[in-house]
Amino acid sequence: MTEEFIEKENKAIAQEYKELLRISYQTLSADDKKLIRKAFDFAVEAHKDVRRKSGEAYIFHPIAVAKIVASEIGLGATSIAAALMHDVVEDTHYTVHDIEKEFNPKVAQIVEGLTKIAQVKKDMNISMQAENFRKMLLTLNDDVRVILIKIADRLHNMQTMESMPEYKQVKIASETLYIYAPLAHRLGLYNIKNQLEDLGLKYTEPEVYRDIVSKIKETKEQQDAYI
User: Fold this and answer.
1) 96 in Cβ contact with 87 (< 8 Å)
2) pLDDT at position 122 over 70
3) What's the pLDDT score for residue 127?
4) Which of 2, 32, 50, 64 is the most buried (most CB within 10 A)?
5) Domain coordinates of the chain in residue numbers?
6) 3-226 is classed in which CATH architecture?
7) What is the reported pLDDT for 139?
């Protein structure tokens, strides 16, 4: 990678971060902004040498998840900070203890919950995962933010699956339709639920999906022509 590419990418990262702040600006206090900035810097450092399958810097993913958490779910600074660091413990050398020491017990607790979901998920089939999520919902009454951030994480992963092998796309999409879309519905996240279902259909039933998209486009063109 050239210096020019890295400089351009760093500008894009900074732009995404500014957009995150703009989305949640009205509800943030000065301390909230400091917390989010600190979490952003921590995540940038933790993921600095990591890239997604698409080739882009990994940090774009947690920023995107934090934006969904702020704009589509409406959560506050603690959740935004946790969303920025949601993959830090799972994917880097940092521990929950490191996050608690640098931030506060609540942020660390949410990140730990997200890490546990990721670890359990690897050892379970879809029906076992669904049952596990139902149990988690019952035990997370004091902090459902873990599940809400996980749903935001899944939405962004579904939006950016183009670079994955087809078998993995189908597996993740099936899991999304069976677990995450119903969960989003149950939690009142109807817009996210619809997005998850649309994206799930795109990968599990591509011909049906293309047919629906084509018909919607056709209807829109007819409406535009009529207007």
Assistant:
1) no
2) no
3) 72
4) 64
5) 3-226
6) Orthogonal Bundle (1.10)
7) 66
Instruction: Point out the catalytic residue in the list 90, 98, 143, 205.
Output: 90
What are the structure tokens assigned to 13, written together? 């990262």
Within 10 angstroms of residue 19's Cβ, the number of other Cβ atoms is: 14
Structure tokens at 150: 């996980």
Q: What's the pLDDT score for residue 57? A: 94
Residue 90: active-site member? yes
For residue 77, the model assigns a pLDDT of: 96
Instruction: Give CA–CA dist 59/1, Å, rounded.
Output: 17
Closest CA to 80 of 112, 110, 115: 110
> What separation in angstroms does the CA of 57 have from each of 3, 10, 20?
14, 9, 17
What is the percent of the chain where pLDDT is above 70? 91
Pull the structure tokens for residue 2: 């050239």
Strand partners, 57: 51
Q: How far apart are CA 154 and CA 21, in angstroms?
A: 22
